From TrEMBL:
PROSITE patterns: CARD, DEATH_DOMAIN. It comes from Octopus bimaculoides (California two-spotted octopus). Residues 34-126 form the CARD domain. CDD domains: CARD, Death. SUPFAM superfamilies: DEATH domain (SSF47986). This is Death domain-containing protein. Gene3D superfamilies: Death Domain, Fas (1.10.533.10). Pfam families: CARD.
Length: 244
């Protein structure tokens, strides 16, 4: 007598689960590849190349016309590239495992049509999982009594590089507000500060805004390059006596 699970042979079910796990693991590693190549991608993609990739993904129904409009609304090629990469991350998170792999593969193929060297760089990038030096729970314990004022916010943002828009989006900041901040200033540091300062102002008084912000930075560690060791050191240094 064959063992079944909801009418499916047990061995077939095990195979399906194994393939699903492998697909998920591979896509996780694909995300690491894109993250490690993010700076090269932003520098290597211009208006024309972004348009080619966007049109390619649109044709294959990976993105929508609305997504395309948001990307094209950015003023510079680099900003368009950042918006495109952020969009790919969001799409990867929301799609099923098969589609996730399809999206990465299609992105590389679209990229190859414009710049084969850059496509090869993404394909051959190191996909090993980075060591995580700090436990986010330990960090949150150490910062639980620290208020996220403008001085602390500036200390945090000094340790943030590309991908900060993804963090802002995760916090609920709209793309419209991000666009306004970029229109108001061409300085990325000023853009970041104004966006996160505005987010901080609307947080309820009972909310630990610093903990919430660091949790999202930790969750988006592959989309936004941050050094939590340095962030912890920078935000606790004025409060060492208090923490002890």
């Amino acid at each position: 007598m064959k063992c079944t699970v909801d009418g499916v042979p047990y061995l077939s079910m095990v195979t399906i689960m194994w393939r699903s796990t492998m697909a998920n693991t591979q896509q996780f590693r694909n995300s690491i590849k894109i993250q490690r190549c993010r700076e090269d991608l932003v520098e290597g993609l211009d208006d024309v190349s972004v348009k080619v990739i966007v049109d390619c993904l649109l044709t294959k129904l990976f993105i929508t016309h609305e997504n395309k409009d948001v990307i094209q609304a950015e003023k510079t090629g680099q900003d368009k590239a950042r918006e495109l990469l952020d969009l790919i991350y969001r799409k990867v998170e929301s799609q099923d495992k098969v589609k996730k792999s399809d999206l990465f593969d299609e992105f590389v193929e679209c990229l190859r049509k414009y710049n084969s060297c850059l496509a090869s760089t993404v394909e051959m990038a190191d996909d090993s999982v980075p060591n995580k030096a700090l436990n986010i729970d330990d960090i949150l314990v150490r910062v639980k009594d620290i208020n996220l004022d403008e001085k602390i916010l500036k200390c945090i943002l000094m340790n943030v590089s590309s991908g900060w828009e993804h963090v802002a989006t995760e916090l609920g900041v709209s793309h419209v507000k991000l666009s306004i901040a970029k229109q108001n200033s061409s300085d990325v540091d000023i853009q970041m500060f104004e966006v996160f300062k505005a987010w901080r102002r609307i947080q309820p008084s009972e909310t630990n805004a610093l903990s919430k912000l660091l949790e999202v930075f930790d969750r988006c560690s592959y989309e936004c390059k941050t050094d939590l060791n340095k962030i912890l050191e920078s935000v606790t240094s004025p409060h060492k006596e208090k923490i002890r």
